[in-house]
Design brief:
heterodimer, A: 4-stranded parallel beta sheet, 5 helices, 21% strand, B: 2 strands
Chain lengths: 105, 206
Amino acid sequence: MTGKIAIIGDGDSITVFKAAGVAAFAAEDETKARDALRKAAKEYRIIFLTEELYRPLEQFIKRFDEQPYPVVLSIPSKNGSTGHGAELLKSAMERALGVDILFNN
Amino acid sequence: MARLNVNPTRMELKKLKARLSTAVRGHKLLKDKSDEMVRRFSAIIKENKRLRDDVEKQLSETLKQFSVARSVTPSYRAEAAFSMPSSAVRAECGTAGVMGVEVPEISLVNEKSAGGLPYAYSEMTGEADFSVGKAAALLPEMVRLAQVEKTVRMLANEIERNKRRVNALEYVMIPQLEETIKYIKSKLDENERAAVIRLMKVKSKT
């Protein structure tokens, strides 16, 4: 089954992906991003979300963890990476293994 | 540990023994499952880390470069140039099973047409074309990262849940059953002794 890809973020960060064939939704703040995500989750199977918007919506996104789709991925915005991806990875690892096997600090 | 509230009869004893053996077997199976899941998880999370570092680096670069490229053209013209959607990228979405957990499996289809630009060359600078191409080239990797990261998160949830099950069996269910079995056994023995004594008393009176 085929699915579509969407990206939600601030204007500058998403334009380039629009040209690359990804449906882009602009959202400046948390509430708008939440609405956009809710709509996109019904139609799109893969959703990229910039770190700035992912962070406040973490609790909301957790509900998608039970089924395989949609897949929500946190990506760095044009301001560069804030290490949020590493944080997510770390929390998953600590939950499953109880120890840190990647970052060692 | 509290024992179960049952009547000390042979029937109950038999039932409880069957339940105990099932619980022990289930515990062993779940523990094996947990071990194997942890092993898979550590392999996947290493791949996840590598992919994430890679994607984050390239993506930040692309976005920064695009920011610069875009700033050369007036913003209203840039908006107009990018307002037309190009051919949408589609992804083949399936599911795969990892230790009984359904995880997504995604592959991009029709990757080539993603390189087409939605605007005329005269509208934007060449640098912008370059970043668009780079972003398109980065997409398969991002999709792969999305898949792996989702798998990691789903596996982590499942491992946590499984661990709770194993602990419940090991520290609650099994001790409880053992204690109850012991209680019933001692109760039955006592009854038996009481019966023997009663018989002896009755006999000595005659």
